[in-house]
Amino acid sequence: MHLRTSHANTVQMFGIRFFSVFQAFVPEFLDES
Q1: How far apart are the C-alpha atoms of 20 and 4, rounded to whole Å?
Q2: CA atoms lying within 13 Å on the CB side of residue 9
Q3: What are the b/e assignments for 1-33, b being 16+ CB within 10 Å?
Q4: Phi and psi torsions of 32, nearest 5°
Q5: Concatenated DSSP letters for the chain?
Q6: Alpha-carbon distance 27 to 9, whole Å?
Q7: In this predicted structure, what is the pLDDT of residue 2?
Q8: Cα 2 to Cα 25: distance, rounded to the nearest angstrom
Q9: Mind listing the pLDDT tens digit for each residue in 1-33?
Q10: The whole model's pTM is what?
Q11: The organism sits in which domain of life (predicted)?
Q12: How many Å apart are CA 24 and CA 15, to the nearest integer?
């Protein structure tokens, strides 16, 4: 069973995707303020 490894990979991919979206939206938010 590699449940722990699979869970870690899922969290890592989610973190990378969230960070890329966060990095894309923050500059626009700061420019409007």
Answers
A1: 24
A2: 5
A3: eeeeeeeeeeeeeeeeeeeeeeeeeeeeeeeee
A4: -80, -25
A5: --HHHHHHHHHHHHHHHHHHHHHHHHHHHHHH-
A6: 28
A7: 67
A8: 35
A9: 567 889 999 999 999 999 999 999 888 888 876
A10: 0.51
A11: Eukaryota
A12: 14
Tokens encoding 23: 């990095």
Dihedral pair phi/psi, residue 18, rounded to 5°: -65, -40
User: Tokens representing 27?
Assistant: 């500059």
C-alpha 9 chain-centroid distance: 12
pLDDT of 31: 81
How is residue 33 written in tokens? 């303020």
The residue with tokens 């938010």 is: 29
Tokens 């960070």 belong to which residue?
A: 19
